[in-house]
Design brief:
Layout lengths: L7 H58 L5 H15 L3 E7 L7 H13 L3 E6 L4 E6 L5 E7 H4 L13 E7 L2 E6 L8 E8 L8 E8 L6 H76 L9 H32 L8 E3 L1 H11 L1 H7 L1 E6 L7 E3 L1 H19 L7 E9 L3 E8 L6 H5 L16 H11 L3 E6 L5 E8 L4 H5 L1
Parallel strand pairs: 10-12
Antiparallel strand pairs: 1-4, 2-3, 3-4, 5-6, 5-8, 7-8, 9-11, 12-13, 13-15, 14-15
Helix pairs in contact: 1-5, 5-6, 5-11, 7-9, 9-11
Length: 498
């Protein structure tokens, strides 16, 4: 199976996606941290204002408790000292048994007597003031409170000129404790909670907007750089791994090619040596028969004839031994006929070869087109031999395209099928075969390339014939050379039944 290498654009997309995912995670984490800090500050603000509201209730309760047995002078003295002790208390009001208060205070006093706690009256949040009334006997008290002075700014957790807005609400009335920047932002944080006081039921609303510029851009930039470096390292590692695998496959194909070339060479040597060896054997046997003829010998030549006969017998023996050695060499290097053939797909062999030769194809600027391979039926072939044939055909096409000085360099690989055969075609846009070379294309040791051995196409033809196929060379009509490999098609169940 061919391991496909991711193209450069895929690695770029992976780097962008990884960087975007990391930046989104970092931004989300930063927003979560800011949100937690905002919630903590909002709780502190709520606690401080609730404590101030509870203090106001305590002051009124203390004034009511000072009445019994203390006399009017003590109560009046306490009323006069309160604004000095509490800056938020603007005025202390007291009503005796026969005095009358304005209507808002009178209604609040009646409600306070019913609820037995302080009650709000005369609320003026536009000025940041309100009145707190507590009914009592023999006197009722009221505090006029300045909300701005009631804020404990010394313990305030928020910067006064910061982006956080703090508002106290009561119905439709609002009082802004802290305006914030007021700038629109990409994200909005908000907290809303009622003060922990029944007498002063103000609602605290704290909001903040976050700008895009407040994101941790340095960390985001560092993450993008780290993600790009990681993806680049992974891509380099994969390229190195693929180069090593490609080198191993090319080495394997080279070794197979050399062994097959050695087989072709040995077969040629056997063919060439068998003829002289046969002649030597025939001549030697003829000489031996002549010497054995009693009419051709004399008594005085007995010793000579015996010696000659022995020498000729040894010559015959050595000639036969040479013939046997050559025959054994030929049987050793000649591949078995169809022993390793099995059903396989042409597309697998072609994709494997294109993967191995990808750097050479890219460097030569060759545009490869393939069609019909994925739909072609399986063939009966030896995987190693088929890969060797396709490798040689594609390699020859690339070498032919080296001579194309201008114009597109194209390599077309296609497949078609008949009832019992599958044809694989490899066509290039090179100069094609010269007429004289086309006739001798499959002749051993014939080559038109300088430095070539002339065994490539001869070897491919022998391998194809060994698998029950054939290899044909021709010049394409549109220019260039085309070699067609025909192999037996694997019989389908329907065809086998027929």
């Amino acid at each position: 199976m061919v391991t496909r290498t991711l193209p450069r654009w895929a690695w770029s997309v992976a780097a962008v996606l990884l960087g975007a995912a990391g930046c989104a995670w970092l931004a989300q984490a930063d927003l979560a941290t800011r949100g937690e800090a905002f919630d903590t500050d909002a709780r502190i603000v709520h606690r401080l204002l609730s404590q101030q509201a509870a203090q106001h209730d305590a002051v009124l309760a203390t004034l009511a408790l000072l009445q019994p047995g203390t006399g009017a002078a003590a109560a009046t003295s306490a009323e006069q000292r309160l604004p000095a002790l509490y800056s938020q208390v603007l005025q202390v009001l007291r009503r005796g048994g026969v005095e009358a208060w304005p209507a808002p205070l009178a209604r609040a006093e009646a409600e306070s007597a019913t609820l037995r706690r302080a009650v709000l009256a005369d609320i003026d949040l536009a000025r940041g003031q309100y009145t707190l009334v507590r009914a009592g006997l023999p006197s009722s008290f009221a505090l006029r409170i300045d909300a701005a002075a009631a804020v404990p700014w010394a313990d305030w957790p928020l910067p006064r000129q910061g982006p956080v807005r703090v508002v106290l609400q009561h119905g439709d009335a609002r009082w802004v404790l802290q305006p914030g920047t007021g700038e629109p932002g990409r994200w909005r944080l908000a907290a809303e909670k009622r003060l922990a006081s029944d007498s002063q039921p103000f609602t605290l609303v704290v909001t903040r907007t976050l700008q895009v510029g407040e994101l941790p851009w340095w960390r985001l930039l560092l993450w993008c750089v780290a993600a790009a470096a990681a993806v680049a390292g992974l891509a380099a590692w994969q390229r190195q791994r693929d180069s090593a695998r490609r080198a191993r496959e090319l080495l394997r194909l080279g070794q197979v090619g050399r062994l097959n070339a050695l087989g072709e060479l040995a077969a040629g040597m056997a063919h060439e040596l068998n003829q002289p060896l046969t002649a030597v054997l025939a001549s030697t046997q003829a000489a031996q028969r002549l010497l054995d003829d009693p009419d051709e010998t004399g008594a005085d030549l007995a010793t000579t004839l015996a010696t000659t006969r022995q020498a000729l017998a040894q010559s015959v023996q050595q000639a036969r031994r040479a013939a046997d050695v050559v025959a054994r060499l030929r049987r050793l290097v000649q591949p078995a006929d169809g022993g390793a053939a099995r059903p396989m797909r042409l597309a697998d062999a072609v994709d494997s070869v294109l993967y191995l030769l990808a750097p050479q194809i890219e460097a030569a600027g060759v545009h490869v087109e393939r069609y019909g391979l994925d739909d072609a039926p399986e063939v009966l072939a030896d995987p190693v031999a088929l890969e060797q044939i396709v490798h040689n055909l594609v390699q020859n096409a690339l070498q032919a395209l080296e001579g194309v000085a201008a114009g597109p360099r194209r390599l077309l690989i296609h497949a078609s099928a008949t009832a019992d055969r599958v044809v694989l075609g490899v066509r290039d846009s090179g100069p094609g075969f010269p007429p004289a070379a086309l006739e001798r294309a499959f002749e051993p040791f014939f080559t038109t390339r300088q430095g070539g051995l002339g065994l490539g196409l001869s070897l491919c033809e022998s391998l194809a014939a060994g698998m029950g196929g054939a290899l044909v060379a021709r010049n394409a009509g549109a220019g260039g050379a085309e070699l067609s490999l025909t192999l037996p098609r694997v019989a389908t169940p329907a065809a086998g039944a027929a």
